[in-house]
Amino acid sequence: MIEARPASPRARLLWAAGITIASALFLALGTWQLYRMQWKQALIARVNARAHAAPAAAPGRAEWPSITAENAEYRHVQVAGTLLHDRSTLVQASTNYGLGFWVMTPLKTAAGDTILVNRGFIPTRQTPSAAPQAALVTGLLRISEPGGSVVRKNDAAGQRWYSRDVQAIAAAGGLTQVAPYFIDADAAPAQEAGQPIGGLTVIAFRDNHLVYALTWYALALMIIGRTWQITRKKRQTGVE
């Protein structure tokens, strides 16, 4: 019969250090996820408050350099100007209404600024109306989506757009003094046939941080529990 050889002091020290480090790491990750959960819930509350607030004036040129997703996205804003329908850009879209296009129309303000307005969804490609139209646009401020979609890049030369890239759309359309954001127009009080369907902004944030935190804590407890079992068994059998 082969007797169990006692572990050396060095091996016991390394084993204890490894268990301690692993447990501490999992506990730290769980606690970090709880902090992330608090941050995410505060973000959701802040965004919901912005989106449902009374509309404020859309940021003007002096404010453009300071606009970020954190401090401005989903603000409920309003701006007056002239919609340049003949310079609209169609961006491929997937919505609850199916596949189709977002209609991105430049709006020229009295101050000479240009703001792209996502007037809403259309199911089929249409030739934009050529007549400019005075309008008061109300909607949610959105940050530019540069580059393209996850799987496809925008093709300005071919007029194939997969994301609402403000800078690229402006450059392709020869637009100047363009705001670094666009506006998702609210739904029209009475939807006219053939007009883009507005008010389709999806505001959704994944909040799985509590699940992640509990998973990390559970792993830490499993390691601590298993270590206690092994140590207890060794003591009962007299093995050190």
Could you write a compact summary of the structure shown?
This protein is of the alpha+beta class and 240 residues long. The chain has 4 helices and 7 strands, in the order αβαβββββαβα.
Structure description:
The protein is an alpha+beta fold and 240 residues long. It has 2 domains: 9-46 and 207-237; 75-185, no CATH class. It is 35% helix and 23% strand. The protein is built from 4 helices and 7 strands. The protein has helices at residues 9-51, 69-72, 166-172, 209-237; strands at 56-57, 76-83, 89-95, 98-108, 114-122, 133-143, 178-185. Strands 2-4-5-7-6 form a 5-stranded mixed beta barrel. Helix 1 packs antiparallel against helix 4 (209-237). The mean pLDDT is 84.
Outline: elongated
Largest beta-sheet characterization: 5 strands, mixed, barrel
Number of helices: 4
Q: What would you call the structural class?
A: alpha+beta
Layout of helices and strands, plus pairs?
Blueprint: H1 9-51, E1 56-57, H2 69-72, E2 76-83, E3 89-95, E4 98-108, E5 114-122, E6 133-143, H3 166-172, E7 178-185, H4 209-237
Parallel strand pairs: 1-2, 5-7
Antiparallel strand pairs: 2-4, 2-6, 3-4, 4-5, 6-7
Helix pairs in contact: 1-4
